[in-house]
Amino acid sequence: MNRRYKSIAKAILAVMTLMVLTLTNACAQQAIATQVLTLQVVEANKIDISLKAVTLVIDQASLESGSPVEAVNEDGVLVWVTNGDSKKITVVSNNPSPRFQVKLQAVNVSGSAGVAAPEAVLNDNTTKDLISGISRSSGRCKIRMTASAKVANGVGTETYAITYTVTGG
């Protein structure tokens, strides 16, 4: 029996030696690679308006005021997103000297997505503030457009290209 135990012991020793050599060999074959990742998040400002074209028609007059009745549209929805800080939304028209008056106002600005400025009168082609106090947010609002005319303005048609921009505040 003694011989049998020695034989089993030798076999166990041989298996253990083979296991140690295999593990040592596996550890010795390890290779290490290092990678450096640089992640850059750039400022992203997006804006869109739901109504791409609007027609306002002034076709009534008030005998009390002696002037045409304003035409109003509040169907357009302005949506925006920015991951930047201290932003505002501005509006500008391409019409440098309009005969009729057009006013824009942001109405029902969603949540904490900014503060509506008073009406922006498009009486020239300079940039006007529409919404201020926007930082790292997305938002939406309705755009109220009001067109008015005076009797002395007569009749006619004007076309405005109106541009909305998310910009530094």
Distance between the termini: 94 Å
Structural class: alpha+beta
Largest sheet: 5 strands, antiparallel
**If you compute it from the alpha carbons, what radius of gyration comes out, rounded to the nearest whole angstrom?**
36 Å
In percent terms, what proportion of residues is strand?
35-45%
What order do the helices and strands follow? HEEEEEEEEEEE
> What is the tally of helical segments?
1
Overall geometry comes to rod-shaped
Overall pLDDT score? 89
Please mark out the parts with pLDDT under 50 across 5 or more consecutive residues, or reply none. none
**Beta strands, count:** 11
- Tell me roughly what share of residues is in helical segments: 10-25%
Q: How are the strands of the biggest sheet laid out side by side?
A: 1-4-10-6-8
Describe the structure.
About 15% of the residues lie in helices and about 40% in strands. With about 170 residues, it is of the alpha+beta class. The chain is rod-shaped and about 125 Å long.
